[in-house]
């Protein structure tokens, strides 16, 4: 309960900061609605009719009230509610980010254990060098490399992600979704495997591992029962911190592969100066970051009883 209360305070603080910043940059959408050549008298009348001439504190309280009722604002540039813009794109972003995150975890855990068990071997050096290369590589550069090799030089996959608005069609179109998912997966594997390797090496040096081996327990059971669960604690934290990507999407990857998710919506709104969409996106990302931290803390306390939330 204490951590939940702290999380709520952080979300409130972020909402105040973001709203204040937006209020300074974009005090009213009147010009977007009435046009740049609208007379000032018409702009003032529109602001008064829609409450934009009220004090900033009153406008913030109205904004919070709308958020609590599921109203994320209205995009006058797109002429529809922000929630309507988000609805279809949320599922698509969650699908791409969720699949890449799941694949990264499934690959990184055994890869990190292998590196720890075979440390300083040729296999460990090869995997470590590859992981460092991927980890230091910008996402857009890796995506361009994959496009050049697997979409242009070897036309195996599509250079553009699925453009369908139906999630089922996107899921079925593996030919178009392979490269964007692979881009996000490889970057995450590079980070996750490094943490898993370091954590596994620490666990392998513990006394209970030596005792299990001295009792004659097969190496496979030593690794599965005693090593993986304890060494996976950093991965639990990383997965929790990756939660915002599930709904807000990966900005660079969606832009690179022209994938119609929330990340691409953010870029398009940025170019159009569609501030209500930017405000809603930023607020959603902040809430998910706080929620991800809270979930990671709770999951860690469940996975390791020695950890207590404070």
Describe the structure.
This protein has 310 residues and is an all-alpha fold. Helix content is 76%, strand content 1%. A two-stranded antiparallel ribbon has the order 1-2. A hairpin with a 4-residue loop joins strand 1 and strand 2 (80-81). Helix 5 (82-117) packs antiparallel against helix 6, helix 9 (174-204) packs across helix 11 (219-231) and helix 15 runs antiparallel to helix 16 (275-303). The radius of gyration is 24 Å and the shape is globular. The mean pLDDT is 85.
Task: Please give the structural blueprint.
Layout: H1 2-25, H2 30-34, H3 40-49, H4 56-68, E1 74-75, E2 80-81, H5 82-117, H6 122-136, H7 139-153, H8 167-172, H9 174-204, H10 207-214, H11 219-231, H12 233-241, H13 243-248, H14 251-256, H15 262-272, H16 275-303
